[in-house]
Automatic annotation (TrEMBL):
It comes from Fraxinus pennsylvanica. Homodimer. One of its GO terms (cellular component) is mitochondrion. It is an enzyme of class 2 (transferase). Belongs to the class-I pyridoxal-phosphate-dependent aminotransferase family. This is Aspartate aminotransferase. One of its GO terms (molecular function) is pyridoxal phosphate binding. In eukaryotes there are cytoplasmic, mitochondrial and chloroplastic isozymes.
Length: 400
């Protein structure tokens, strides 16, 4: 009965890892998926995470009962505080509902389904380009997807004029997906002044912001600074949605731990919204897993552990910045044609190199370097040892 099923293509991002795993060359280098690696090229479990896990294991009173549909209460409260700020008026006024979800993707999906059922508009505008999973998540959630201009390939920076024009001509009330910081895949963020202009435009047209915050702490190394865009929109008293992921900033990738917060106009609305979120979640996966959320809650509620986390997070962010400089210097010293200053200007985990899909294919075939076909490289996958190999490959790709 399944003979008619055609083979689906691999995922454009996770499929890069599948191809990489099959490569037997000792030179191979995976710069596809956004996952942090150490200078030795190894995945990193933060010390503070190990410590939290140890505490959880040693606590014999812990049980493995189901969590509530909305997840771990402490985790939800602390996650809202982390992104909105401890002194957020929305939190103080009890008008935020936060539910634990399956990392960033799960939070986007639950938020998308809630909007498709209960919001008066059905279209979400996503930046062009954006994370490849965004359009799929929102389409399957029941929304229509349109794009707004975001990236200018000529300047390799923000197409701010295009962004304002496109959001300015979107019908009033539509949903707009915004990357809270460290835009994926471009590494290009609006400045604080530009964020303020975006806020004014969106509020004047009643456009509903849906933030994807997957890299808090990874853009600047500072958790509060990286929450600036979200807090700006919350400070004006209006509504918004925020999807948070702890995959990158706590290195909890496989634990699938994240949160969806919906900022409402009143406490009463927030509690009704939460009751409906439960109806989205229960038939989808019943309730979320307990382990990752317990790790996050343990760290966020302990002053010392929180401090330790910020130090480890900053070290990851700094190593990535250092990789940017090393790659830029390596290309300059090779005299590689082109202006590569965007490597040091772009922020977060990724560099949007400007390499085209043929050049990417060439680098995979000849140099065993793996990246997404749009030319995005995960700077977090690089090390001082592998920078020369990547620079040689880029040089060869652009001069062939
Ligand atoms: C990425 O963009 O590489 C990450 O967000 C991982 C993923 O799930 O795609």
């Amino acid at each position: 009965v399944f003979e008619h099923v055609v083979r689906a293509p691999e995922d454009p991002i996770l499929g890069v890892t599948v191809a990489y795993n099959k490569d037997t060359s000792p030179l191979k280098l995976n710069l596809g998926v956004g996952a942090y690696r150490t200078e030795e090229g190894k995945p990193l479990v933060l010390n503070v995470v190990r410590r939290a896990e140890q505490m959880l294991v040693n606590n014999s009173s812990r049980v493995k009962e189901y969590l509530p549909i909305v997840g771990l209460a402490d985790f939800n409260k602390l996650s809202a505080k982390l992104i909105l700020g401890a002194d957020s008026p929305a939190i103080q006024e009890n008008r935020v509902t936060t539910v634990q979800c399956l990392s960033g993707t799960g939070s986007l999906r639950v938020g998308g389904e809630f909007l498709a059922r209960h919001y008066h508009q059905r279209t979400i505008y996503i930046p062009q380009p954006t994370w490849g999973n965004h359009p799929k998540v929102f389409t399957l959630a029941g929304l229509s997807v349109k794009t707004f201009r975001y990236y200018d390939p000529v300047t390799r920076g923000l197409d701010f004029q295009g962004l304002l024009e496109d959001l300015g001509s979107a019908p009033s009330g539509e949903i707009v997906l915004l990357h809270a910081c460290a835009h994926n895949p471009t590494g290009v963020d609006p400045t604080p002044q530009q964020w303020e202009q975006i806020r004014q435009l969106m509020r004047s047209k009643a456009l509903l912001p849906f933030f994807d915050s997957a890299y808090q702490g990874f853009a600047s190394g500072n958790l509060d600074a990286d929450a600036h865009s979200v807090r700006l929109f919350v400070a004006d008293g209006g509504e918004c949605l925020v999807a948070q992921s702890y995959a990158k900033n706590m290195g909890l990738y496989g634990e699938r731990v994240g949160a969806l917060s919906i900022v409402c106009k009143s406490a009463d609305v927030a509690s009704r919204v939460e009751s409906q979120l439960k109806l989205v979640i229960r038939p989808m996966y019943s309730n979320p897993p307990i382990h990752g959320a317990s790790i996050v809650a343990t760290i966020l509620k302990d002053r010392n552990m929180y401090q330790e986390w910020t130090i480890e997070l900053k070290a990851m962010a700094d190593r990535i910045i250092n990789m940017r400089q090393q790659l830029f210097d390596a290309l300059r010293s090779r005299g590689t044609p082109g202006d590569w200053s965007h490597i040091i200007k772009q922020i977060g985990m990724f560099t949007f190199t400007g390499l085209n899909s043929e050049q990417v294919a060439f680098m995979r075939k000849e140099y065993h370097i793996y990246m997404t076909s749009d030319g995005r490289i995960s700077m977090a996958g690089l090390s001082s040892r592998t920078v020369p190999h990547l620079a040689d490959a880029i040089h060869a790709a652009v001069t062939r």
